[in-house]
Amino acid sequence: MEIMNTISKENYLKTIYQIKKPKSKKVSTAHLAKRLEVSNAATSDMAKKLFDLGLVKYQPYRGVELTAKGEKLALNVIRRHRLWELFLIKTLNLSWSEVHTEAERLEHQASDFLIDRIDEYLDYPDFDPHGDPIPNKNGELPVQPDSVKLTAAEVGKFYFIHRVKNDDIKLLDYLTELGLKLNMQLQVLSRLEFDNSVRVKINNKEHSFSEKIAEKLSLVSADGEKR
Which of 10, 149, 185, 201 is the most buried (most CB within 10 A)? Predict the structure, then answer.
C-alpha cells in the first residue's frame, strides 16, 4: 500500500510540473484530474496530502503549485523516466512508442545508485529519445536550442528533427514506420494554406503531414539561423 501511495504521489508531482505554464505555476485540480484520468475529488484529496507534506501550495478552488521541495522531487522522477527511456532504446533497441510505458513503471522502482550508474553508462545525456531535456542529479536542465514547430517552419529551409511529443503512441508508431529519428534532416517543401498541412523531404522521400502531426514535431535550423 505504501509503494502505491509513493507512486501516486510521484505521478501527481511529475504531472503538475509537466503541465504548469511558465507565467503561472499554478495548475487547476480539474486540469490535473483530466490529465491523470482520475476524479476531481481524488485530485483534491491528493493535493491536501501533498500540501501536508510540504510538496505543494494548495488552496481549494485556486489550484496547486509545487514548492521547491516538490519541484525537486518532480524533477527527480522526470530524470528517472527519461534516462530509462534512453537506456531501453540504446540497450534493447525498443522503439519510440514502446519505451514510454516501460519507463512509467521503472521510474518508481530503481534506487538513486542505479539511476546514477545508468546516467554514467549513457555518458550523461542531455535529452531523451523524444528530445525532452533530462535533468541532472542536481535538478538542473540542459540549455535547449532555439526550435520551431513544423507548422511554423519556413518553406524551402532545412531543419533537424529535435523533438517529438510522446503523448500519442499511435503517432509514434506511425513516425517509426516512416523511419523518422531525432537529429534527422528534413526540408520543408510546401504548406497548404487551407488546412496547414506540410509537405517535407526526408532521405530523398517526400511525406505529407497533417497539421495535427506537424504540431507535434519541433525542429532546429540546419543552417545556424536563430529562430
Answer: 10
The tens digit of pLDDT for each residue in 139-152 reads 999 998 899 999 99
pLDDT in tens, 83-128: 999 999 999 988 888 888 889 889 988 899 999 999 999 999 999 9
Q: Which residues make Cβ contacts (< 8 Å) with residue 208, sequence separation at least 6?
A: 197, 198, 199, 200
CB 74 within 8 A of CB 14: yes
What's the one-letter identity of residue 96?
W
Residue 38 DSSP class: -
Type of residue at 187: Q
Distance CA(219)–CA(182), nearest Å, equals 9
For the whole model, what pTM was predicted?
0.86
- Cα distance between residue 189 and residue 64, in whole Å: 44
Which residues touch 74 (CB under 8 Å, ≥6 apart)?
Answer: 10, 13, 14, 16, 17, 66
Name which of 137, 121, 42, 129 is nearest 80 in CA terms. 137
